[in-house]
Design goal:
Elements: E1 2-6, H1 10-21, E2 25-29, H2 33-40, H3 51-60, E3 64-67, H4 70-74, E4 79-82, H5 98-110, E5 115-119, H6 127-138, E6 144-148, H7 158-163, E7 168-171, H8 175-184, H9 186-190, E8 195-198, H10 200-231, H11 235-243, H12 264-277, H13 283-306, E9 315-319, H14 335-344, E10 348-352, H15 357-363, E11 368-369, H16 373-377, E12 382-385, H17 397-403, E13 408-411, H18 418-423, E14 428-430
Parallel strand pairs: 1-2, 1-4, 2-3, 4-5, 5-6, 7-8, 9-10, 9-12, 10-11, 12-13, 13-14
Length: 435
């Protein structure tokens, strides 16, 4: 199959590279010539484990290329995927679809023979029908179908998610489009991965509902964590006991400083707005959004208490600022609430993150970036674990405690045992939900 992937952001680039590894002929298109030049030189603009090697392999095999010429890429394509950004629109919480519709209009002018135009971007219910209208209006003679194919890629594990998915969701309106999508995903069909073929609206809703449910699980356990602190329970034990119920499961039951990233905050806000627009208020989703912001502020209060009520004049070492490990993504990260509060309160903040500095330098002014946790801890009054990178899971706690002016640990990911911290010489340990 010949595929054009419009957009080389996180979703577009990972999807394009993986489709080429399925054996398809893929052209990834972007308007940014600088980004395309880097990709042609084998430079991957995002951090995703294994992506650079997979990209290099498929470029050398002649299945993957990069271009700024959308019309040439679309010409003769069996499927054109729209994988552009849908950020939250300022002021009203809706997803901004301007990039999607602009891409659809440009695709329409270049269509050559029957083509399936597939929306990979996360879009509100009804968007694919609007895409169809845009294409039909721009090119009344076009022979095409639209399809919805939402992505379910976890940053840091995206390649495995693409190659061994829990499910693939495809929304179509015709058998012809279904056949094209089945050919595209044939390697997964042959290995019996679940392929959910449904209508356009259901496919669009599946994506939002899935992300909202996962965000709800995170927020639920964070509220339980707050209660555990008051009653003397340990949320890690509570989550383990709850997660062993097969109807619930253990995933996304890890208490912490709140969810962030490119999907959950944006998608919960968009889903809440969709509900309001259709007079079906989604009270649970609205509460999830509100509580998640409160969780981040509660973390600041925890740190302030550990600093005897004031950050002023304190040195604070922060381990990890990306929204999760194995990514360089800072979007909506809890660090963007917590670190500015430290700096604004007068603290001297040192930051360590294996991949976060590239974005973090612009987003977190006033901090000092250092190479390792032991540098960060020297003379510090507080050590904060904010992102659970593997590099931070087995630190020499005794060495850290000896280097600190006041050995106090805020373990906001609950990766250490409080008893081990005490034995290592920390005078205070605070986790999340560990009463």
């Amino acid at each position: 199959m010949k595929i054009a992937m419009i957009g080389t952001g996180y979703v577009g680039l990972v999807s394009g590279v993986c489709f080429s590894d399925f054996g398809h002929d893929v052209v990834c298109v972007d308007k940014d010539p600088g980004k395309i030049d880097k990709l042609r030189n084998g430079e991957v603009p995002i951090y995703e484990p294994g992506l650079d090697a997979l990209l290099d392999r498929n470029v050398k095999a002649g299945r993957l290329s990069f271009s700024t010429d959308l019309a040439e890429a679309v010409k003769g394509a069996d499927a054109v995927f729209i994988a552009v950004g849908t950020p939250t629109r300022r002021g009203d919480g809706h997803a901004d679809l301007s990039y999607v519709f602009a891409a659809a209009e440009e695709i329409a002018t270049a269509l050559d023979g029957y083509t399936v135009v597939v929306t990979k971007s996360t879009v509100p219910v009804g968007t694919n029908r609007q895409v169809r209208q845009v294409i039909r209006k721009t090119n009344p003679q076009a022979d095409f179908d639209v399809a919805s194919n939402p992505e379910f890629l976890r940053e840091g594990a995206a390649i495995d998610d693409f190659m061994r998915p829990d499910r693939v969701v495809v929304g179509v309106q015709s058998d012809r489009a279904r056949e094209v999508m089945e050919q595209i995903y044939r390697p997964l069909y042959l290995r019996h991965f679940p392929i959910v073929v449904t209508d356009l609206e259901s496919a669009e809703m599946i994506k939002y509902a899935a992300n909202a449910f996962l965000a709800t699980k995170i927020t639920f356990i964070n509220e339980i964590a707050a209660l555990c602190e008051r009653v003397g329970a340990d949320v890690k034990e509570v989550a383990r006991g709850v997660g062993l119920d097969g109807r619930i499961g253990p995933k996304f039951l890890h208490a912490g400083p709140g969810f962030g990233g490119s999907c959950f905050p944006k998608d919960t806000r968009a889903l809440a707005r969709i509900g309001q627009d259709h007079s079906v208020p989604l009270r649970i989703v609205e509460s999830v959004i509100e509580v998640n912001e409160h969780v981040k502020r509660r973390m600041v209060e925890k740190l302030e208490d550990l600093c005897d009520g004031s950050f002023n004049g304190r040195t604070v070492a922060v381990l990890g600022v990306t929204f999760k490990p194995n990514t360089d993504d800072m979007r909506e990260a809890p660090a963007l609430t917590i670190v500015p509060a430290l700096v604004g309160g007068g603290a001297k903040v040192r930051v360590v993150d294996p991949q976060g500095r590239k974005e973090g330098e612009a987003l977190l002014p006033g901090v000092k970036w250092v190479e390792n946790p032991y540098q960060a801890a020297k003379g510090a009054h507080l050590l904060v674990v904010l992102t659970e990178w593997n590099e931070f899971r087995a630190l020499d706690l005794k060495r850290l405690a000896r280097k600190m002016a006041r050995p106090r640990l805020a373990d906001l990911r609950n990766i250490y045992d409080p008893r081990d911290a005490k034995k290592a010489g920390f005078e205070a340990y605070v986790g999340v939900g560990r009463g």
